[in-house]
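To whoever is on call:

I kicked off a structure prediction for a single chain this morning and the downstream step that reads the tokens threw a length-mismatch warning. I double-checked the sequence; it's 352 residues and nothing unusual in it as far as I can see. Pasting both halves so you can look.
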Amino acid sequence: MKIKITGIGSYIPEKKVSNTDFGNHVFLNEDGSPFGRPNDIIINKFKGITGIEHRRYAETNQTSSDLAYLASVKAIANAGIDAETIDYIIFAHNFGDVKAGTTQSDMLPSLATRVKNKLQIKNPKCVAYDILFGCPGWIEGVLQANAFIKSGMAKRCLVIGSETLSRVVDDHDRDSMIYSDGAGVAIIEASEDETGMLSYESGTYAADEANYLFFGKSYNTDLDPDTRYIKMHGRKIYEFALTTVPAAMKSCLDKSGIAIDDVKKILIHQANEKMDEAIIDRFYKLYDRPVPQDIMPMSIHELGNSSVATVPTLFDLLIRGEIKDQSISKGDILLFASVGAGMNVNAFVYRY
């Protein structure tokens, strides 16, 4: 038995924020001193590294669970199922529901429970819970759904990745330009044919790596130091990802028995264009192969980094033919991979 994605849906907020919208921001160094470069130079360098030109922010009346609900409705319709037949709702996020204008996280009740309520699922045996696993959370949710189904504990799972990172950024930190909002959702069921998940890999690196992503005070020393924002040690994350992610991807692919030349697409967490390109380059070097053209669909240029939502959203866009010059066909081999706070790394090989 294998598991496969029988329905997919995403919600991309309508509010588009361009790089030029950061032109009047006051960017500071960590110690609060002026950064010392004009914003146009900062923004141009940022785009050259990350590839991000635009990102999407949720409307002020929306929270992460709202975006998740809207994406879930699409996934359920895409799968053509009755929501009452869902056995598990697994919701991957990092910061809960954060209302506009605040930085306080609200996770009671769980966001999965809120989505179940919004979907009006009455079945009490539909178990709803959240997972905190950094950016790889949606993939980890898929792996948990795989375990539930193979063990006989479930037949059908709804796996969500949703986040509103725009609510937890420090406007004085250049890294604030990376983050965005969005939701991606999949229906996971057993597969009795040749399609579905073929292998997986997952791991947590929690020595020094545990603190590469963290909550910290604003770079503006005039603000309340007890108000916390998402922070990261970007260089350390970059070096960690380039070492660890290609190795995890190779381990996953080798376990599947699929040859590297048979991989049609790699769907990787949309964190940073240059980092993702470097990961793919190192992955192929492990097999002494050149990187194939168009192997890596990207959405980061227009959507930014929405954490747990990037991979399922990318898959949804790819299936619907909404990524320029990218497509997949039945039977194609896909490799999903992600890296993020923890530091966590995971991957799975999938026959579409």
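Update from on-call: the warning came from a stale cache, not from the record. Cleared it. Sanity check on the structure: The two ends are 15 Å apart (CA to CA).
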